Give the backbone structure.
Amino acid sequence: MRKNLRRWGGAACVLVIIGMAAPVLGQSSLGTAQAFAVLGGSTVTNTGASVITGDLGVSPGSAVTGFPPGIVTGTIHAANATALQAQNDVTTQYNSLASAACLANLTGQNLGGLTLTPGVYCFNTSAQLTGTLTLDAQGSAGATFIFKTGSTLTTASASSVLLINGGNPCGVAWQIGSSATLGTTTSFIGNLIALTSITLNTDANIIGRALARNGAVTLDSNNISFAACGSAVPPVPTLSQWMMIGLAGLLCLTGAVALRQRRRPI
């Protein structure tokens, strides 16, 4: 009985700590990259009447094509110091997301049709979205959803990500191990950060950002904006948040030691 109690108690502690740490990881600052709606590593190319609300940049590459007819409401930064620093900050955020412990492994499942609560969701390899993924913030403005894929993310045409019951679109983060492709007329939410490239097919739209570390961002009559996020990014975690996580871990450890000592004969 006590052995089972220790086992279940330990599992509960792990879940509590993950639940506390996930929002902190998701809220890590994008630094200077927070001003960018689109950032590519090699090139940014556009076809059609795309509208980018925010800055657009590329580094270490320098090619930006298709603006006009595309519109950028902010500034275009091509292979300059601003774009380079933004890429450095994106790399920091990418690594932070990659280190987040998985709350659930969804490998082999289609995201379409699922309703998920805040947490860290992982795919060993690729992830697919066909239909609607519903994210339930459960009334929390600071709700954080992190999605990690070992390789690609692909959405089918007319797919969507829906955020309900509060929340902030930029509290949704997608860490993509290689490349992401959004199908035609996809309605997407969150900061999409890919190691390689990001391709948006015709009329795919993002409330959030499209940030590619090494490869190209390819656009075709898309709207990308983080304006609906309310603020550029969720707030940077405070020292008190990290202290609370540490305290939870210490309490779990203390409880485990106490249970173990009770088992010892006098």
About this structure: The longest strand covers residues 187-194. Residues 31-234 form one domain. The chain has two domains: 2-19+240-263, 31-234.
